[in-house]
Amino acid sequence: MTDDSPALPPLALYVHVPWCVRKCPYCDFNSHGVGRGAVLPEEEYLAALIADLDADLPLAAGRPLASIFIGGGTPSLMSAAFYSRLFEALAARLPLARDIEITLEANPGTLERGRFAGYRAAGINRLSLGVQSFQDEQLAALGRIHSGADAAAAVDEARRAGFDNLNLDLMHGLPGQTPALALADLEAALALSPEHLSWYQLTLEPNTAFHSHPPPLPEEEVLWDIQDLGHERLEAAGLVRYEISAYARGGRRSRHNLNYWRFGDYLGIGAGAHGKLSRRGGGGAMAIERRWKSRQPDAYLRRSEDPRGFVAGRSLIEEAELPLEFAMNALRLVDGVPLSTWSRCTGREPARLEDRLAAARKKGLLVEDAGRLQATPQGLLFLNELLALISQDRGCQG
């Protein structure tokens, strides 16, 4: 007797480290400034992470971890020994893909740079440096604690430590930024030959200092010029755009982020971490749950002794919400996804989308390919409009 149940998607792990030296005014992540030289509760946090993972293990369903991403906050505030012990605990509990990608977010300031060799020895094989800009005036406006020279020195040290898979996070649309200044940042980044570049526009998110006291941002026409010129320069340098704000050299796309965009599963451990897990329900149907952990570090640490565990909340994705949930991720990919993936992930037949897909193609938002769900360059620029067209499909709503 064959099992016709849909296969569970690939599984990744996200680990959140909530502490940073200083909260940046644009940051809406779960990060908590502790000042320079603070002693972090490494032992207690490691024990909590392992207990958190143990509680979530049944959701892994025996799948190997394809990737691990450690974000924050500033994960590079933790020692290399912390990560060595964490990975040992992970390997004892879950199968790890032979070629697993393990990414650590790091601050390019001098505070943590000496640890890069230790991180590489611990098993971390991809480094993501939060540079944001190479111009000291812009960095000061963003509240960053490093200089442009610090960023270049951090890349040099990462290379000497053996990292051959390096991402640089870079922002554009910064206060007072001109196209020339934005391109100067890109040239500084390209001079360091990163394998991957995340180049994204500064946005004013709720519950941030910048949202309460907005800085003077460039006019919309300037932002369009920055994006057009930047895309052209990055492509010419061999960094191929594969997602709205992600560029990579051959074979260096972020596997962890691709798993998100392809609607894969991920466990989330740590203060404020989010996870998305699929499980087979009755009759072979797939149920998808999102869950999130306690945000405040102190409360998270106390949860190890709480019968409720670390989970602060959970919700099932309603069937009617699946098309939009899937499209919000998949349509960020420049190449999109096969339309058959839509059916597998949402349980909806492509035929039920025909009228909306036709409307989106007529508007120039989707490519003319009956077998793919793929945004045009214009569709990537106006993604919200494209998503609204698809999610309003009558067949997807009821």
UniProtKB/TrEMBL annotation:
Its main location: cytoplasm. It is found in: Cytoplasm. The keyword Repeat does not apply. It comes from the Bacteria. InterPro entries: Aldolase_TIM, Coproporphyrinogen-III_oxidase, Elp3/MiaA/NifB-like_rSAM, HemN_C, HemW-like, rSAM, rSAM_sf. The keyword Transmembrane does not apply. Pfam families: HemN_C, Radical_SAM. SMART domains: Elp3. Residues 5-239 form the Radical SAM core domain. Keywords: 4Fe-4S, Chaperone, Cytoplasm, Heme, Iron, Iron-sulfur, Metal-binding, S-adenosyl-L-methionine. Its cofactor is [4Fe-4S] cluster. Belongs to the anaerobic coproporphyrinogen-III oxidase family. HemW subfamily. Probably acts as a heme chaperone, transferring heme to an unknown acceptor. Binds one molecule of heme per monomer, possibly covalently. Binds 1 [4Fe-4S] cluster. The cluster is coordinated with 3 cysteines and an exchangeable S-adenosyl-L-methionine. This is Heme chaperone HemW. The lineage of its organism: Bacteria, Pseudomonadati, Pseudomonadota, Gammaproteobacteria, Oceanospirillales. The gene is hemW.
